[in-house]
Specification:
The structure holds 2 protein chains of 2 kinds.
Chain A: H1 9-39, H2 51-54, H3 64-71, H4 77-106, H5 114-126, H6 129-142, H7 149-173, H8 178-185, H9 190-219, H10 222-227, H11 235-245, H12 249-279
Helix pairs in contact in A: 1-12, 3-12, 4-7, 4-9, 4-11, 5-7, 6-7, 7-9, 8-9, 9-12
Chain B: H1 3-6, H2 16-58, H3 61-66, H4 68-74, H5 85-100, H6 104-114, H7 118-130, H8 140-145, H9 154-162, H10 170-175, E1 178-180, E2 186-188, H11 196-227, H12 230-245, H13 248-259, H14 264-271, H15 287-310, H16 315-323, H17 328-339, H18 341-356, H19 360-365, H20 373-384, H21 387-411
Antiparallel strand pairs in B: 1-2
Helix pairs in contact in B: 2-21, 4-5, 6-7, 11-12, 11-15, 11-18, 12-15, 13-15, 15-18, 16-17, 18-21, 20-21
The chains are: A mainly alpha, B mainly alpha.
């Protein structure tokens, strides 16, 4: 942002001050993530940059923590990763199906008690996680699903649906309902109309809601800590235990993998958002 | 003209108005049926259990069911002098039933919470019953009071009477470091045992300051993102979105590395000569660590709503303000800032609510001062298994959040919370 030539000195100073603050905040946001990356390749066991690393000595770097993550003895990460993915995938499917259907109803202008129902549907996002955790635990324990995958999937569906409801309702707000009426007048039944007309148009919103649900489930630790048994340990639980006991470089290797995963998710979410905006005719 | 002739009929001969109403009703039902699966699912798995938390938190039926006869005969006792023979008799009957069911220990525990010293005297009574030393034809009052002097103390009988109602507020009072004393009035617990009030205040303090820090740091960058040309702002947006999508535990781990005593932040301070190498400050396991880590973790939740509001503000408004004679500061303060208030409200609400229920990060980087109310709830759920107390504290926290939400609604109006 170049300043016009006539800018007074005090505004000039203020402007550079403002740019300085912004640079600092962006640095503050992003820099911590980049610390993990080099340290996970540390050849030594300490979580500080060794002298060798500062000199960029190739011997100071190694993949031993990645090997430990995959092949280490009594290694919890394999099981945790498998559980995390299974739980997150099923939780995402559940949230997306329930959330999308509900959003279709909610965005209809005939919907009665819209405000109240919307508030109920997104309440798991507003209520602090610990309270949701206690409530969901009571339910899961009562129906006898504690320490099962299904129990955790149900919990994560509860936590994930609000995101799907919000993103899909937002997408539907720009949706031209006359196309579904056109389909109906041409003899299509409602299910067919939804699959062939509505769904392809709102798909970006559905998928980005699904991504939110996936990340919520994949990253969730508070509720899982109540529900999981030894067989249902997930990546966040293992990270939590590891960070509490001893910060080992293996955790950093896992963290690096998670950062790579989040980059992938960010890129797909961003692409979807642009596509959705293009489809809805929002131009900037 | 009568309304009769004026009525428009559809081809089926039904008045149009009625036909429209019917169609409307059908649409209403259709919309509702679509929402139904999720609504039912949430009501069963989520809304009811929150209600169950409430019943659990005030439930005190256990003792009511243990001493049914005693409470019944106590109804006519005014609680002033020692109770009559009838009370002793029914207490004996109740207690004997409990001994047969081997549940007398639980009664002792429960009554001991009400008043110390019950366990001992109930054990004494238990032994007498086991040895069949109590003459069921004699006076129960004489026999029981002669067992231990506490049975002769009216305070203990009053304590039993106090446990009669099937509901109790004790757990809520305990959450505020209060309790019901011998006279039945509310009193404070001893000073060195007032832990919960400290936790509430600490939770509020941390949530408040994290919100303030997030606002102070988030506002400038949201403004920059909203005013920069698209190609630059998209790049910078990654700095906000990447942390947003990254696991909370990963970000906490990176702060643990950065803030440790031999960590990079301390290295930097030593390098620029702010502190000496042998006197590195402790930045983790205290409040500094909690504030720094939580601010970074919650900052995207402030930036995204602010950005989406600022994006809609036309730059010509600021130009108009300036051309009408306002200095840039005045134009900003009088024109731009008021327009961003909905974004500020949404961001602050989001960050505050998230912060108030946080405990993973404070527990990892906050050390002894990192225990917040959520930790306490988790502790009672998992370790002491005092679920009713955990429920009570959870509901107190929820009430707090709802109050914040209500205030927000009054001040700003509930906007759709946008997710970037």
């Amino acid at each position: 942002m170049a300043l016009p030539k006539y800018t007074e000195t005090r505004y000039r100073v203020w402007h550079y001050f403002y740019i300085g603050i912004c640079t600092f905040v962006f640095f503050f946001l992003i820099a911590p993530l980049f610390v993990i990356f080099p340290l996970s390749f540390n050849a030594e066991e300490f979580l500080v940059f060794s002298d060798g690393m500062k000199r960029l000595d190739p011997d100071a770097f190694s993949l031993r923590w990645y090997q430990d993550m995959i092949y280490g003895t009594k290694n919890p990460w394999g099981l945790a990763a498998k559980n995390s993915f299974i739980i997150a995938i099923f939780a995402t499917l559940g949230s997306v199906i329930l959330g999308t259907v509900a959003a279709l109803g909610l965005s209809s202008r005939h919907m009665p008690y819209k405000g109240l129902i919307m508030a109920t549907l997104i309440s798991p996002m507003i209520v602090p996680l610990i309270i949701s955790g206690v409530a969901i635990f009571f339910f899961i324990a009562k129906v006898g699903l504690a320490a099962t995958h299904l129990g955790i999937v149900i919990a994560h569906i509860i936590l994930g649906t609000p995101f799907v409801v919000i993103t899909v309702t937002a997408t539907l707000s720009g949706f031209d309902h006359s196309v579904t009426r056109a389909a109906a007048s041409l003899g299509s039944n409602p299910v067919n109309t939804f699959m062939k007309i509505t769904l392809p148009l709102i798909l970006p919103g559905v998928i980005s809601g699904g991504l939110f649900a996936f990340v919520t489930s994949f990253d969730e630790v508070v509720v899982v800590l109540f529900l999981a048994g030894l067989d249902n340990t997930t990546i966040p639980i293992q990270m939590w235990t590891g960070l509490r006991e001893q910060l080992s470089p293996t955790i950093l290797a896992v963290a690096t993998c998670l950062i790579v995963l989040s980059v992938l998710i960010l890129v797909s979410a961003e692409l979807l958002r642009r596509r959705s905006e293009r489809l809805r005719g929002i131009n900037r | 003209m009568t309304s009769e002739t004026n009525k428009i009929l559809t081809t089926d001969g039904i008045p149009l108005e009625e036909s429209l109403k019917k169609a409307e009703r059908k649409n209403k039902i259709k919309a509702f049926l679509l929402v139904c699966p999720l609504l039912l699912f949430l009501i069963i798995t989520y809304v009811f259990p929150i209600g169950e938390m409430f019943t659990r938190s005030i439930d005190d039926k256990m003792i009511t069911n243990m001493l049914p006869n005693t409470f019944k005969s106590m109804e006519s006792w005014d609680g002033q002098d020692m109770p009559e023979e009838e009370v002793f008799k029914s207490f004996y009957i109740d207690f004997k039933t409990l001994v047969e069911k081997k549940e007398h220990g639980k009664l002792g525990q429960r009554l001991n919470k009400e008043k110390n010293g019950f366990t001992t005297i109930l054990k004494k009574l238990f032994r007498q019953i086991q040895r069949n030393k109590i003459d069921e034809n004699g006076s129960f009052k004489e026999q029981i009071t002669s067992l231990h002097k506490r049975f002769n103390n009216v305070e203990y009988w009053r304590a039993i009477k106090r446990t009669a109602p099937p509901y109790t507020m004790a757990k809520y009072l305990k959450g505020m470091d209060l309790f019901i004393d011998e006279n039945g009035s509310i009193a404070q617990v001893e000073e060195d045992r007032r832990i919960h009030r400290i936790l509430w205040l600490r939770t509020l303090e941390i949530a408040f300051f994290v919100t303030v820090f997030c606002f102070l740091m988030g506002y400038p960058i949201a403004h920059l993102l909203a005013t920069l040309p698209m190609k630059y702002s998209n790049l910078l947006m990654i700095c906000v979105l990447l942390p947003f999508w990254t696991s909370l535990l990963v970000r906490t781990a990176s702060w643990m590395i950065l803030l440790q005593q031999q960590g990079i932040v301390n290295d930097f301070f030593v390098m620029i000569g702010l502190v000496s190498d042998d006197n590195r400050p402790e930045m983790m396991y205290n409040k500094v660590g909690t504030y720094v880590a939580m601010t970074q973790i919650l900052l995207p939740f402030m930036v995204l709503p602010l950005y989406s509001v600022m994006k809609t503000i036309s730059p010509s408004l600021m130009r108009a303000g300036k051309s009408l004679g306002g200095t840039p500061f005045v134009a900003f303060w009088k024109v731009y800032f008021p327009l961003t208030i909905p974004g500020i409200g949404a961001g602050c609400l989001l960050v505050f609510i998230l912060a108030i229920g946080y405990y993973i990060t404070p527990a990892l980087v906050g050390g002894a001062s990192g225990t917040l109310i959520s930790n306490q709830i988790a502790y009672h759920m998992k370790t002491t298994l005092d679920w009713s107390f955990a429920s009570a504290m959870g509901l107190m926290l929820l009430t707090g959040v709802l109050v914040v939400y209500w205030i927000y609604n009054k001040l700003v109006g509930v906007d759709n919370i946008k997710l970037g």
